[in-house]
Structure formats: structure tokens, C-alpha cells
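RECORD TYPE: inverse folding
INPUT: C-alpha cells
STRUCTURE:
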């Protein structure tokens, strides 16, 4: 997945082992976008989204990847801007391009 995002110009990808680590990074560094899996050790993607809601604005948009254990409506209701079921569809890379461009434009 990271290699696909490396094709998007002027982006860098930060990978973390779990949601807790992601949350700690979000507290000290600005990110244009968060892509999270639902199933992660220590803190799930859904728990990460809930914890991110407590961070000061502006918060990066969140895209959730899942094997289908949760409904897209439930995930969006928690605050995600989009949901992709595994295996990923090609639209994920294009969505990342759009969301990163919007974040950089201040939209």
C-alpha cells in the first residue's frame, strides 16, 4: 500500500504499528490524512477515530480500511470521511490525492 502512495507527488507516508502510536504522533505532528485499519493491536481504528475527536482542530480526515466486520454507515458516523473494504479498490489512491490536496489548500 505504501508503494502506491509513494507515487503521489510531494507526499510522505508515516507507518505506525498500532492506533496508540498513531494517536501519540497526531498530538505532536501535523498530518494531511490518516488511513487506518480497523483491526490493529492495542488500539483499534475505531478507537483511534474516537480519540482523534478529542484532539484540537484542525484534525486530519480519516479513511478507514476494513475486512467488512463493520458497516460503512457506522464507520462514517464515527467521523471517517471514507471507508474501503479489503481488498482495496483503485479509488483509494485517487481519494488520497484529493484529500491531501484539499488539506494542503486549507479546505
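DESIGNED SEQUENCE:
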Amino acid at each position: 500500500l505504501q508503494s502506491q502512495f509513494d507515487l503521489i507527488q510531494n507526499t510522505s507516508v508515516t507507518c505506525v504499528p498500532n492506533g496508540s502510536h498513531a494517536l501519540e504522533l497526531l498530538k505532536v505532528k501535523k498530518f494531511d490524512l490518516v488511513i487506518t485499519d480497523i483491526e490493529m493491536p492495542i488500539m483499534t481504528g475505531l478507537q483511534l477515530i474516537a480519540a482523534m475527536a478529542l484532539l484540537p482542530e484542525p484534525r486530519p480526515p480519516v479513511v478507514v480500511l476494513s475486512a467488512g466486520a463493520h458497516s460503512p454507515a457506522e464507520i462514517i458516523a464515527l467521523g471517517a470521511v471514507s471507508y474501503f473494504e479489503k481488498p482495496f479498490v483503485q479509488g483509494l489512491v485517487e481519494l488520497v490525492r484529493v484529500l491531501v490536496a484539499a488539506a494542503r489548500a486549507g479546505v
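NOTES: The chain has five helices and three strands.
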